[in-house]
Design goal:
The structure is a homodimer of 371-residue chains. With 371 residues, chain A is α/β, with parallel strands linked by helices. Chain A has two domains: 47-79 and 179-349, Rossmann fold (3-Layer(aba) Sandwich), CATH 3.40.50; 82-173, Rossmann fold, CATH 3.40.50.1100. Chain A is 41% helix and 15% strand. Chain A has helices spanning 7-11, 26-29, 56-62, 82-95, 108-119, 136-143, 155-168, 179-185, 187-196, 211-225, 245-248, 270-279, 289-303, 309-321, 343-349, 362-368; strands at residues 52-54, 67-72, 100-104, 123-129, 147-151, 172-173, 202-206, 234-240, 283-287, 330-335, 355-358. In chain A, the strands form two sheets. A six-stranded mixed β-sheet of chain A has the order 1-2-10-7-8-9, with helices on both faces. In chain A, strands 5-4-3-6 form a four-stranded parallel β-sheet. In chain A, helix 6 links the parallel strand 4 (123-129) and strand 5. In chain A, helix 9 (187-196) crosses helix 10 (211-225). The relative contact order of chain A is 0.13. The interface between A and B is large, with 115 and 115 residues.
Chain lengths: 371, 371
């Protein structure tokens, strides 16, 4: 069988491309909203412009005319939303003449920092606690050329060292205290509004350090001030139940959750996140690891979308709070990272398994498939 | 430190968004070029519109005004170019009323088939040879909800079974013999032209089954017929030296290469690929695993781009053939899959390693960093 397109079909083609493919990266696309000048040397991997994917199975499960979308930020160049902040942080470091950057991270931040720093011709130092054996995401940073130092101590000691290094040596700190990161991250809210034509009713988002919820709110409010959206969303922040300081109202000393990207007991952006919740009439809620994993599986097996477990907290939270949604509401769930970042979870928590040693015979195979 | 944008800055913002974020998926974007009608039920994850990233380190390494870009198709929704073909194949299966699809694949095809089939509400069967233990990419398919059957036999037996199943039972075959897949894949060439304004001088591409080189050429020639590009590229196909039937001029019985996605000894699209080479005045060349790994590391550590080893064959080939490039040439290297698909290679082949057990003391750490 071959497929052919007739000349008649081709002659009906529009002379203009209706959809542009020339996305220049988020700094160039949203330049007027960002702290860059005409002479700023933009370091970009053409991040941003990630798909806002309709989630028909979720919409149907909720009913009442509710429309659910997921903002799939795992399709950024290094596989997470951290690229949005890192293109800004590394661009500003480059502008300031930096030759090296540093961060303490065992996760998505280290990968993003390494990729953008190396692209800019800088050294990228990553400090981690010693004894951290699970290579996982760190493998990605190493391949990008990160120089990884494992110190004797815990993660707080690593944070202390990178801060001291940046104060005493010519290395720029790109941990979440770097203010340019939230500037870059806010562009995700711009993209949501640019696609929907307005802000959604609810913005559901996983909350760890609370940087992303802060950045989204910055984005929505700046767009609102400019008349780009008529309304502001209710910001719904979801924390893993074992790492939920905003629900406890105080830091959690030993946070525990399968959702490692939000396993944070003492969020860096505490006051900002509380302000977001108040100004947006938003809410913080906990979701259990069980609920997170169910949402993780549902997204993959019903919507065809593979995210990190932490990302699925936004969908788990939506499903838990769905009764409070207005009819006909528009909801956006933020999926912060690509499921490929964490293949061991896919193996461990898939509900399907492989049927082994099946005879290579048509009837046997058909019978195994239920025919 | 805080970053603020002044009201004056904001008032200079354009009232229109210059860059659209409303990409509707490749079928909708290139509808006149594809075998769909107004009533075709499009199954999409908003695939396509992947970034064409400038590669300044490669351009500089080659010199003579040559401009190198990489088409990073690893940023498709399931992490590889297979999504382009699968949105078409599953859409057409859905249109024909299919309730299930089937393929034989241990790699990117199985993940794409599962994601799109499950999104369309179909069952997704994946048949693999028994004893295949490395879960890797298969884990992704399982999480998407694929039903995986491991048969007693080799990969050819698996191919035979899925073909027979599709002939005798109501399951649609979505292996590479499905003709709609190349239709979807050709859109990558459209995107390249839409960004560059014309076809490149060289299109460098990894060659395994030779479906993608065939599809790109279809795309370039269709666009050329429509006057969308003034020229056609020289198609440069690169095969792993241990799996290079087009260089040998005959099938390779036991292909061997680290680049598993192109470890194919008897390509399904043999005649088509030879025709592409002849019509484009193109060339096939081998690249060694060593050269592939060097390109893989270079892309990550100098360009900030993490691809599958097989993808890096296009860059390895370019570097090997660079002397034959005209001055000022424009080159596009196709990167077919996301490096996150294959984290074990990142761990094994990174040139960097972790410095362990470093005392958590400023001077010690600084000294380790070379300050």
């Amino acid at each position: 069988m071959t497929v052919s397109i007739s000349a008649a079909d081709l002659s009906e083609m529009p002379s203009m491309t209706r959809y542009s493919t020339n996305w220049p990266g988020l700094i160039e696309a949203y330049r007027p909203y960002l702290p860059v000048s005409d002479t700023t040397p933009v370091v970009t991997l053409l991040e941003g412009n990630t798909p806002l994917i309709p989630a028909p199975a979720l919409s149907q499960a909720i009913g009442r005319g509710v429309q659910v979308y997921v903002k799939y930020d795992g399709l950024n160049p290094t596989g997470s939303f951290k690229d949005r902040g890192m293109t800004m942080a590394i661009t500003k470091a480059k502008e300031a003449g930096a030759k090296a950057v540093i961060c303490a991270s065992t996760g998505n931040t280290s990968a993003a920092a390494a990729a953008y720093a190396r692209r800019a011709g800088m050294r990228a130092f990553v400090v981690i606690p010693d004894g951290y054996v699970a290579l996982g995401k760190l493998a990605q940073a190493l391949l990008y050329g990160a120089e990884v130092i494992a110190i004797e101590g815990n993660f707080d000691d690593a944070l202390t060292i990178v801060r001291k290094m940046s104060e005493n040596y010519p290395v720029t700190l790109v941990n979440s205290v770097n203010p340019y990161r939230l500037q870059g991250q806010k562009t995700a809210a711009f993209e949501v509004v640019d696609v929907l034509g307005d802000a959604p009713d609810w913005l559901c988002i996983p909350v760890g350090n609370a940087g992303n919820i802060t950045a989204y709110w910055m984005g929505f409010t700046e767009y609102h001030q400019q008349g780009k959206c008529a309304r502001l969303p209710k910001m719904m922040g979801f924390q893993a139940a074992g790492a939920a300081p905003f629900i406890a109202g105080k830091p959690i000393p030993n946070p525990e959750t399968i959702a490692t990207a939000i396993r944070i007991g003492n969020p860096a952006n505490w006051e900002k996140a509380i302000a977001v919740q108040q100004h947006s009439q938003g809410e913080f809620h906990p979701v259990t690891d069980q609920e997170i994993l169910e949402a993780y599986r549902l997204l993959a097996s019903q919507e065809g979308i593979f995210c990190e477990p932490a990302s699925a907290a936004s969908v788990a939270g939506l499903l838990k709070q769905k009764e409070h949604l207005p009819n006909q509401a528009t909801v956006v769930c933020v999926l912060t990272g690509n499921g490929l970042k964490d293949p061991s979870n896919a193996i461990e928590y898939s509900s399907n398994s492989i049927k082994q040693k099946i005879k290579a015979d048509l009837k046997t195979v058909a019978s195994e498939m239920g025919f």
